[in-house]
Amino acid sequence: MIWDLSVRVFAIPVYLLPSPGRILEVVWEHRAEVWVHSQATLFTVLAGFALSIVTAIPLAAILTLSPLGRAAIYPLLVLSQSIPKVALAPILVLLLGTNILPKIIITFLIAFFPLVISTAAGLAATPVELLELGRSLKANRIKELFRIRLPYAIPFLFSGLKMAITLSVIGAIVGEFVAADQGLGYLMTSALAFFNTPLGYGAIVVLSLLAIILFQAVCLVERVFFPWSLRMQN
Amino acid sequence: MIRIEGITHIFGEEADDRITALENVSLEFGPSEFVAVVGASGCGKSTLLRLIAGLIRPTAGRILLRDQLVAGPTTDVGLVFQKPTLLPWASVLDNVLFPLRMLGELSKGGIERAHELLDLSGLAGFERRMPDELSGGMQQRVALCRGLIRDPAVLLMDEPFAALDALTREEMGEHLLNLWTTRPKTVIFVTHSVPEAVMLSDRVVVMSPRPGRVADIIGVDLPRPRHQDMEADDEYQSSTRRIREHIFGARRPRTFPKPQAKVA
After folding, report:
1. pTM of the entire structure?
2. Whose CA is closest to B118, among B99, B144, B136?
3. Looking at the complex, does the CB of residue A132 fall below 8 Å from at least one CB of chain B?
4. What's the CA angle centered on B151, arms B150 and B155, to 5 degrees?
5. For position A15, what pLDDT does the model report?
6. Handedness of CA A15, A16, A21, A27 (dihedral sign)
7. Looking at residue A98, what is its pLDDT?
8. Predicted local distance difference test score (pLDDT) of residue A234
9. B103 and A132: CB-CB below 8 Å?
10. Residue of chain B nearest A234, judged by CA positions
């Protein structure tokens, strides 16, 4: 309302700040294009997110269970986080070419870290008594990991997943800014380059919607499959 | 059933942060005997249980369980801790069945036994509930059923009722004695509560702290089945007094000086 009014009252040119109505109008006009780019971004986000999960959980297990592994991996992890990923993106494109691979890797690099940390925290939070019970039932470290520690870490894992899915969207956009011929990040930069400001704004709106839907999807998975996990957090 | 021979247990590697938890402790527990272990904090009671379960190895001495040397974690004991530590993702029934699943021993008979134990503990109808839906006392009863599901020869209990309120404690004691009478086994029950120790057990091992040593072993000659009215019994009174003397005797008698009148 205020946005719409101020645009009209102050007669702000549409290439600077389009009204919300105009943004929706333009997105609707370009709906086929927006749909294709959304799918491309969604694919990058999901691929990077999936890669984060399959990497983060084993890493967290090694961090928690093996002091040697911890000593070897922890400095590398911190190093990987201290490199600015946005700066890394052009180099990855240079190395891997302008295909989907560098985008997925950037997404992964941005998203996996909180997942490792929260999963490791969950694995370490298992009560000592439960581990003692496991040992008295002849559980080796693998069995202890899969039957006791990992299930115990589920609530922690989900708080990591919620961070990771949001970061995955950011990662995908960073990748698409640098080098891409499709995706919402590309749509935005190309629209703005041609002063199609409403479409640029539209891309942001669609992107935010995408992020919200993905976040809610993670919450839904937790609610449906691990209802006890939510209760444990309260 | 269990022979503890000259156990010494020292925590810590470095000379200056070494703590002697137990020093030259020798004890014997008979089959189907209910023994309470009491003592102030730091007398190595919990360490003793973990040694018997084979979860830790003694610095010196040895433990025999059914004439077998305890050299590692043994499945012949049931464990009950101060906190219920149930699996939050598993139902009441699945929590009780957890030891069988871990050992790959799940059978129809096992499931029947789980139901039987839950019935005896007043938890019939709660099989499908999740742990967080139960009260603290009910959770601890589930933990007790879990400890008994394999019908172990020995049940080790580490201050199992310490986190519960006084009324629930009394109730839990009755549940425990019921289960123990149905299927007798050696119970080693670590507690801070002198009345609880006397009310439940055949013998009370009193331990002195830092380093943990056996100060005395007191037989409780109260008839079974036990009930709370026995608190008025002479035997109950004298046992309780003797234990208290051991725990508090080493300290100087506490005196409460009269408040002095202010001189105007």
Report:
1. 0.84
2. B144
3. yes
4. 105
5. 76
6. positive
7. 78
8. 62
9. no
10. B132
Q: Confidence band (pLDDT; 50, 70, 90) for B256?
A: low
pLDDT-flagged residues of chain A (< 70):
233-234
Answer yes or no: is pLDDT of B260 > 80. no
Angle at B99 between CA B94 and CA B102, to 5 degrees: 95
Q: Does B84 touch chain A (CB under 8 A)?
A: no
Average pLDDT (B7-29) is 87
- In angstroms, the CA B145 to CA B118 distance is 7
For an interface test with B, the pick among A126, A128, A137 (most B C-beta atoms closer than 10 Å) comes out as A137
Nearest 10 degrees: Cα torsion A66, A71, A72, A78: 120
8 Å CB contact of A147 and B79: no
Q: Is the four-CA dihedral B71, B72, B73, B75 of positive or negative sign?
A: negative
Q: Residue B178 and residue B122: Cα distance in Å, rounded?
A: 11
Is A42 in a helix, a strand, or coil? helix
User: Which chain B residue lies closest to A227 (C-alpha atoms)?
Assistant: B89
In angstroms, the CA A102 to CA A171 distance is 11
Please choose, from the candidates B150, B213, B185, B198, the residue with its C-alpha nearest in 3D space to the C-alpha of residue B65.
B185
Match 């709106």 to its residue by tokens. Answer: A205
| B188/B194 Cα distance (integer angstroms) | 15
Of B79, B102, B132, the CB nearest to A228: B132
Token reading at A94: 């240079």
State the Cα–Cα distance between residues A60 and A91, nearest whole angstrom. 28
Residues in contact with B220: Cβ distance below 8 Å, sequence separation at least 6, in sequence order: B198, B201, B202, B203, B204, B235, B236, B239
Q: State the Cα–Cα distance between residues A76 and B214, nearest whole angstrom.
A: 52
pLDDT at B17 over 60: yes
Q: Does A229 touch chain B (CB under 8 A)?
A: yes
Nearest CA to B156 among B4, B21, B5, B36? Answer: B36
Give residue-wise pLDDT tens across range B156-198: 999 999 988 988 898 899 889 989 998 999 999 999 899 999 9
Q: Which residue has the tokens 């006890």?
A: A228
- AA identity, residue A144: E
Closest to A119 (Cα-Cα) out of A182, A72, A79, A164: A164
